[in-house]
Amino acid sequence: MRTGEATDAAVAAGCGAAAAQVRRAVADARRIVVKVGSSSLTSVAGGRLDPETLAALVDILATRRLSGQQVVLVSSGAIAAGMGPLGLLQRPGDLATQQAAASVGQGALVAAYQQRFGLHGLTVGQVLLTADDVTRRGHYINARRTLERLLELGIVPIINENDTVATHEIKFGDNDRLAALVADLVGADGLVILTDVDALYDGPPSRPESRRVPFVGSPDELAAIDIGGTGSTVGSGGMVTKVEAAGIAGAAGVPTLLTRLTDAKRALAGHDVGTAFAPAAATQASRKRWLAHATSARGRLVIDDGAVRALVERRTSLLPAGVTDVQGSFFAGEPVDVCDLRGTVIARGLVNYPSAELPTMLGRSTRDLARELGAAYEREVIHRDDLVIL
Questions:
Q1: CATH number for the domain harbouring residue 356
Q2: What pLDDT is attached to residue 372?
Q3: Phi then psi for 214, rounded to 5 degrees?
Q4: Residue 346: what pLDDT?
Q5: Residue 119 within a domain
Q6: DSSP-assigned letter for residue 310
Q7: How far apart are CA 256 and CA 259, in angstroms?
Q8: Beta-bridge mates of residue 323
Q9: What was the pLDDT predicted at 240?
Q10: 88, 47 contact by CB (below 8 A)
Q11: Total Cβ atoms within 10 A of residue 67
């Protein structure tokens, strides 16, 4: 064997061992989050739940739960399940009709889960979340407490976005991201994303030359892969959102498996199916992860180059002297993006002042502000403990 070939073989063997480790970690997980998409749960026509598919999924998860593994199910399908009764042939584009379909479909979805899990002697608990529930710290803690208690009681939580009340401004956008945030929220040992594609491919799966990517060791390995793709006619996500979800979970130290629903049993048993995503070697503190992944910016602060260096290199707090512009409308305590002069987002944090107050403070020292306006203004725009570099 030539030297180059030997090196390639060694690398492949190393990747294979790392992938097997991720798969085994998910198979042996004490607590696991499983996400299933709308396209996997609905009929070919897309407007009604497929009872056989749902039953197959529940039977797999019930077996895991009865073997001692705690299972949290993040399930799409409410809007899709409501489309048939409302006479809709495709997923509605306007928010009001989406909410109407979700209102009709959510009850049918949970009833179907309850009936099937009940055959195994298991009880489900419906948990509907909006982005506010994981972006506002008080809501976040309450959601975690509720889920912990449900799991302690032996309940299988069924989580979905609360589409009936969510607005465009407070929507997750897709349940892939929600599942990754829930995995972090509950301290899961593994995340499994079930879809209608068997794995991540190095090109469009429809092309004969495209090959399955069995293992992703770090986000850098995705640079050469044409992920592309949008959601199905009944779903809202695509492969991009699933890879992003794996990245969010990985930042929390949670290994992720991506595969199709028909391979779920084998995936949960540790077999070589789908794509395994390794967790990050070094993870951020929980609060930093929350700021980076669970929040949606309400506005922007533009800062000068000196402030960029201070934040990125010295990890300081953001002071009013370094802020050059305020964009958007927000209140004190809300998350905002911090951008350089070229518009690149470099950080996100919880701002200490409302947008209405900040313009008069720009470029000024905290000492001058305190002398003119009082001691309450001798504080950072964003404290470093409330700031994460992106």
A1: 2.30.130.10
A2: 87
A3: -75, -25
A4: 94
A5: yes
A6: H
A7: 10
A8: 303
A9: 85
A10: yes
A11: 7
Q: Token pair 């070094």 is at which residue?
A: 282
CA distance 321 to 332: 18
CA proximity to 38, closest of 116, 2, 91: 91
Spatial neighbors of 87 by CB under 8 A, at least 6 apart, are: none
Both 47 and 173 in one domain: the answer is yes
Instruction: Check residue 8 and give its pLDDT.
Output: 37
Dig out the tokens for 126 from the structure.
Answer: 């419906």
Is residue 18 helix, strand or coil? Answer: helix
Q: Nearest-CA neighbor of 156 among 241, 81, 60?
A: 60
* Predicted local confidence at residue 343, as pLDDT: 93
pTM (2 decimals)?
0.79
Residues 104 and 162 in one domain: yes
The per-residue pLDDT for 45 is: 55
**Which residue's structure tokens are 């073997």?**
67
Last residue of a domain, one of 247, 265, 288: 288
- Find the domain containing 235 and state its range: 10-288
How many structural domains comprise the chain? Answer: 2
Q: Half-sphere exposure of 12 toward its Cβ, with a 13 Å CA cutoff?
A: 7
Residue 278 shares a structural domain with residue 323: no
**SS3 for 78?**
helix
Do residues 305 and 264 share a domain? no
User: Is 79 within the bounds of a domain?
Assistant: yes
pLDDT in the model for residue 3: 41
Q: Is residue 191 located within the same domain as residue 60?
A: yes
Long-range contacts of 330-336 (CB under 8 A, 24+ apart): 330/298, 330/299, 330/354, 330/355, 331/298, 331/355, 334/298, 334/299, 335/135, 335/291, 335/295, 335/296, 335/297, 335/298, 336/297, 336/298, 336/299, 336/300, 336/301, 336/382
Assess contact for 332 and 354: CB atoms under 8 A. yes
Q: Please give the pLDDT value at position 162.
A: 76
Residue partners of 328: CB distance under 8 A and separation at least 6 = 297, 298, 299, 300, 336, 355
| Of the residues 231, 264, 288, the one at which a domain ends | 288
Query: How is 242-267 classified by DSSP, letter by letter?
Result: HHHHHHHHHHTT--EEEEEGGGHHHH
- Please give the Cα distance from 355 to 32 (Å, whole number): 41
pLDDT of residue 233: 41
pLDDT-flagged residues of the chain (< 50): 1-14, 168-171, 229-237
Q: What is the pLDDT of residue 12?
A: 45
pLDDT of residue 225: 77
Assigned domain for 56 exists? yes
